[in-house]
Fold:
Amino acid sequence: MASVPPSPELCLKARAGVVSSVCFASPQLLATSHHGVATKGSEGGVVALWTLPTGRLLTKAQLSAGAIYASATGECVLSQDRNGTVQLWDIRGASIVESARLETQCNTMCRFAMLLPNADLTSQDLMVAMPATRFGGGVDSGESSEVEVWDFRSRDVAFSTNNGGDESRHGMCMHLSYKELPATGRRIIVRGCEDGSVGVWDCTAARWIANTKLHQDAVLSVAMIAGGQRGLSCSADKTVVAWALDLSREGSEVCQPKTTIEIGQRGVGEVALRPDQKLFAVASWDHRVRVYNLKTLKPLALLKYHTNSVNAVAFSSDNGTLASGSADESVAIWRCYPAREKKVQLDEDL
Structure:
């Protein structure tokens, strides 16, 4: 395992509760989401915006319920709270201003997937995939493994994956990811489910083309590798599974497990790919962040700072920075194998 700095370059604390997600709006702007106590006896959530490399807290926006997830692109941030509200925030200087919202009534811990028909996140064409609230367990039950795609323009469901089949056997959706495959133009939604399965919905064919059990416990995060032929998933069962996706096949042959990595003594909260597709990081419940070579799946770094479960990891778009967020209420900023520095260049054949 390669030598790494013993401590992060920055340690950030918003004093807003447990960190549920971290994401980069740009290499110089980091957004974090938190769930904790907003007022005495009332659980609330916060989205915080930080400037890097100074680590200065620019602003915090209060949510009505605990924050589950935040995602950022360009000059905007999307937040999701436990009441199913998805808010679009415009970054304006040192503040963030709400510009649109969806009331999905999706009361689960599943993280949404962002669909971007246009590159501009401020466009009203933005859509998000959420667990369905009107199938399976009924409205607001959060028990369905079906998916609804919500449109910010209409403030309603654009389409759903419910085509009359019985998907309830997979339990709740735990994580959703969206991918447009460049080679074919096909669009897919990938879900991780409570029963340990990974499902693939073909948006063109309007059907589930794969439901493969890859884990022994709930799938908490899925990530698609560029090109769409491979993916990674992680679970509460302490594993990360690398799998292959072949859309030319049918049924169980569409998604095939290739390699299973055992992670520590506890579960894994999130897996994140570096944009250059050379590394990936996992957020571990044993308080550590692990970094792997994507091609060889060999461990490269074990990062120790947090004193509680690590819930979230994310890389910056310039491949130079890794952020981790924890239940200890802190965010750590790491410089781990920056791609532009030759002295830590990885295998040349990657």
